[in-house]
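Re: that chain you flagged

S.,

Sorry for the slow reply, it's been a week of failed gels. I finally had a moment to sit down with the sequence you sent. For the record, here it is as I used it:
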Amino acid sequence: MATLELRNVNKSYGSGLADTLKNIELSIDSGEFLILVGPSGCGKSTLMNCIAGLEGVSGGAILVDGDDISGKSPKDRDIAMVFQSYALYPTMSVRDNIAFGLKIRKLAQAQIDEEVARVAKLLQIEHLLSRKPGQLSGGQQQRVAMGRALARRPKIYLFDEPLSNLDAKLRVEMRTEIKLMHQRLKTTTVYVTHDQIEAMTLGDKVAVMKDGIIQQFGTPQQIYNDPANLFVASFIGSPPMNFIPLRVQVRDGQRYGLLESAAGAPGQARCELALGAAEGLEGRELILGIRPEQLLLAQAGAVLPAIVAEVEVVEPTGPDTLAFVEINQTKVCCRLAPDAAPRVGQGLELQFDPGRALLFDARTGERLPLGVPVVSAAPRKVAQLKGR
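Prediction finished late last night. Pasting the structure tokens below so you have them in one place:
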């Protein structure tokens, strides 16, 4: 196990080209599981290659247990990497693929046999040791690739989108296997993925990347519940967060953001968010962020903002039902219990806890550092919208 720290790491491929990595700052403790997540082209695989030593950094430092390894060759970093393509030797047996790195290090044959047996048992591939990679399924090949890395017992494991070539069912199974393996070995791990479900389920810490910049770094729950900006809020969560544009109106010197649907009586089809005397909102486009599970069917006596909206689409998923309505001419997803499944055309009275809703600047994408009281149209009910 080892600590890993990245200090102001930059990567550029030449003069006149935009930096691929920009001032990356990260630190994880010994034994932690770090997820690098983001869309294709955001720089996460480049950052992984820099940690492994497959690419050099243009600036900054990479430290393992406080030792700067930025200038060391890959073989001297004591880091094992599992690639997206598995990179198995097709003419070698599973046993020889796992043992290859140990033979290069000139370990005694008895020690090699012991290590291969340990890894094969851990990954439940003992019955495959005599086969060639071409005789294995995708999931089995992935286990062998992991076994080759595990046999080295390095300080740090790196996984570069290892499950992207597997089908959906096998991805879920292998995700569980990787998490169990980490719980057993407790080795510091960095895992690259563009799949936010993998990020949420596997990581102790998550770094969300975009355009070579870390947008937010924290625990999965911190990033889910308290996203730093519009990009993070939209990328993390399935189904994704609802983003509802707000039109700011001024009445009697007070500023309001209006939520409005096309269903129900006028008093039921609108909800006003009182922005009070908050400054700098004139002419500013605002976006209200609400996660699907935070839009609830109205309960009698609940003192929460409410709005009636007509159901346009219903998607049963088994454990819950997704109902889509329109608010402010925007499609909005509600995550409901399966026994509360509505019908298309039905008017739903929806409530939300404004303390869990978020407010964003539509132009910059940043969270607004505001705590604004929320008032529903009728009856008037006051609560507090969550700011930063």
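What I noticed first: The chain has eight helices and 23 strands.

Talk soon,
D.
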